[in-house]
Amino acid sequence: MSNHLSFEKPLVELREKIAELKSFAKEKGIDLSEEIQTLEGRLAQLEEDIYGNLHPWQRVQIARFSERPTTLDYIEHLFNDFLEMHGDRLFADDPAIVGGIALYKGNPVTVIGHQRGKDTKDNIYRNFGMPHPEGYRKALRLMKQAEKFSRPVICFIDTKGAYPGKAAEERGQSEAIARNLREMAGLKVPIVSIVIGEGGSGGALALGVGNYIHMLENSTYSVISPEGAAALLWKDASYAKQAAETMQITAPDLKKLGVVDTVIEEVRGGAHKDVKKQAMLIDQVLEESLHTLTRKSASELVKERYEKYKEIGEIITL
Amino acid sequence: MLKDFFSRRRRYATIPSERKQQVNTKEGVMTKCPECKTIMYTKELQKHHNVCFRCDHHLPMTAYERIHSLIEEDTFVEYDRNLISGDPLSFPEYKEKLATDREKTNLNEAVVTGEGKLDGIPIVIGVMDGRFRMGSMGVAVGEKITRAIEKAIEKERPFILFSASGGARMQEGMLSLMQMAKTSAALHRLDEAGLLFISVMTHPTTGGVSASFASLGDYNFAEPKALIGFAGRRIIEQTIRQELPENFQTAEFLLEHGQLDRVVHRHEMKSTLKTVLRIHGYHREEGGEELV
């Protein structure tokens, strides 16, 4: 069974033991309900111990888990009439970013997000959720369209990073990301960005210049992957676990640093345990954000976005 | 990985460990071209704006050397010289490294910003210095550049920025990444104000700096053979498992792929900038205009 992460092993073993005991009791017609009850109590305690105190590295594992819900999963649960729109009108359509128009509680919105695959075949098609410049240019095209028709933009962030490839460099990966940053800063409609999985560096930020930046509790957002940081710092990628702590990449850490507005609570054990319930938890925060932002004028939105980034990080004078 | 970008073209004669150098290049007196290995008097080389006499290789310039090569000396007024980053993540050895670089470079951070006159035309200028933490961008670098852009808007002056950077500064984590958004947002304001921004990429301009302000010029220029790109060469080679062309991610490669307006030789930098400024309607300001 692949539906668990390595740190969940004690839980899985205990659950198996309980199931075994139950079937044994049934088979032999013996009453073991007391033992089972004790074990179930222990299981609840163990769940609390593990899920209640997730370490940064465990959160990284949850964020990267192959079964973690993706942009399209949340779109299905959060929006109505989603119609995907393709292509950057310049070169190609990049399946690593999806986008389109939809209704959110009856109101038109533009939705854009990184899209990972669910299995190997899907991942190859989606390039593991790592966009080329055309992905960012498609995203920008859709944002400009949202601005023209005065509808809010919702971005889901879920990428290891922009694709480090030859073609991506030739077609201006840097320029595509940079342009998105500048244009998002000036967009005259509300932008809400939500990190749902991994937020990898500039490739994530290119969908992240929002009026609000929210993060799912077990998602990460970082300037460099823990492995990359470990390789640079300790010349050894196996120190990734340590780097994950040092780099402060989890939602609670980034909330403390003032980078993130809201940490969106996750279903116990991670969003993959119950996508529908997770979508509801996102829905509450998204609804509130849009409720606040849609009342603001274009110039207020742009001004507040500017001030938001001006306030991040402490400046010291010698 | 990023270190390689710099060590390849370090200014002073560096001695590769595998083969000892025969010629005695006393610290600072002589400089060896990292490209053609010619040994030159450092002072002569500096007069030549650190361009190799023999092979035309552009060796790095310090931020102040660059400013002096473009701005009339008595007109330069520096902004925010004392602005520095904290250590927001309590990152191992970061404070010590900053202190070492401050001492070594006589700079407080990896960018120098200010205003002055280029051939009599008042401009706001920023110059990054690769010697300080490899020119990486943390909160202070992002803030200095943002404030310089805001000054340009306030004074309605053109903004010119010379970048030299390995990218976002790892030791300040996500706060460094957010500087990409902040500087780009400031450039949006500059755009709205209808003001000119010339970006000049020098060796190297990579990662988060390449993917933010450096790519957002009304004109994007670069010095010959400067390394410019988003991802590091080695990472790309590991990802795509194929050899990359030798000129990959050089200024000439970018020009060929439509990513740059021009590759500008250092000896023609000032005159090129002057021409752009003049075509944009900026003219010499004679006499005693009050700066600051």
Automatic annotation (TrEMBL), chain A:
It is found in: Cytoplasm. It catalyses: N(6)-carboxybiotinyl-L-lysyl-[protein] + acetyl-CoA = N(6)-biotinyl-L-lysyl-[protein] + malonyl-CoA. This is Acetyl-coenzyme A carboxylase carboxyl transferase subunit alpha. HAMAP family: AcetylCoA_CT_alpha. Acetyl-CoA carboxylase is a heterohexamer composed of biotin carboxyl carrier protein (AccB), biotin carboxylase (AccC) and two subunits each of ACCase subunit alpha (AccA) and ACCase subunit beta (AccD). Keywords: ATP-binding, Cytoplasm, Fatty acid biosynthesis, Fatty acid metabolism, Ligase, Lipid biosynthesis, Lipid metabolism, Nucleotide-binding, Transferase. Gene3D superfamilies: 2-enoyl-CoA Hydratase, Chain A, domain 1. InterPro entries: Acetyl_CoA_COase_a_su (IPR001095), ClpP/crotonase-like_dom_sf (IPR029045), COA_CT_C (IPR011763). GO terms for molecular function: acetyl-CoA carboxylase activity; transferase activity. Residues 38-292 form the CoA carboxyltransferase C-terminal domain. Pathway: Lipid metabolism; malonyl-CoA biosynthesis; malonyl-CoA from acetyl-CoA: step 1/1.
Automatic annotation (TrEMBL), chain B:
It is an enzyme of class 2 (transferase). Pathway: Lipid metabolism; malonyl-CoA biosynthesis; malonyl-CoA from acetyl-CoA: step 1/1. Its cofactor is Zn(2+). It comes from the Bacteria. Residues 29-292 form the CoA carboxyltransferase N-terminal domain. It is found in: Cytoplasm. It holds the Pfam family Zn_ribbon_ACC. Gene3D superfamilies: 2-enoyl-CoA Hydratase, Chain A, domain 1. Acetyl-CoA carboxylase is a heterohexamer composed of biotin carboxyl carrier protein (AccB), biotin carboxylase (AccC) and two subunits each of ACCase subunit alpha (AccA) and ACCase subunit beta (AccD). NCBIfam families: accD. This is Acetyl-coenzyme A carboxylase carboxyl transferase subunit beta.
